[in-house]
What we know:
This protein has no helices and ten strands. The protein has strands at 14-16, 23-25, 38-40, 45-48, 62-64, 69-73, 86-88, 93-96, 108-110, 115-116. The strands form two sheets. Strands 1-3-5-7-9 form a five-stranded parallel beta sheet, with no helix packed on it. Pfam families: LRR_1.
Amino acid sequence: MPTLSRMSMVSPSTLWFLDAGMDRHIPEKLGKCKSLKILDISFNSFLGPLPDTFRSLESIGSFIVEGNHLSGPVPTWISNWKHANSIRLSENQFSGKLPSLKLEYLTTFFADANQLS
């Protein structure tokens, strides 16, 4: 089974690793996939915060990371994802306040089962 850290990033538009048994931190190189429209890495065992390189995911439409062990605050830069229509952060260990999200195309947002205030 390929691991995300060993993948060659050739500007994919969709990455789907649903329940793929992956763990550790999310590789920062995923944030360099500027043409990425759909990222689903849900129900794995990823740890730690979302990589800061994700602020560059300008084309992201669906961002699904639910069911991991991600932690820290939900980054304010997700409010810059102009094309986002679905953001799913549920069932992690995110903490603190949610940033203000004024995204024109956002129709689905889940952040339940975290430690958010």
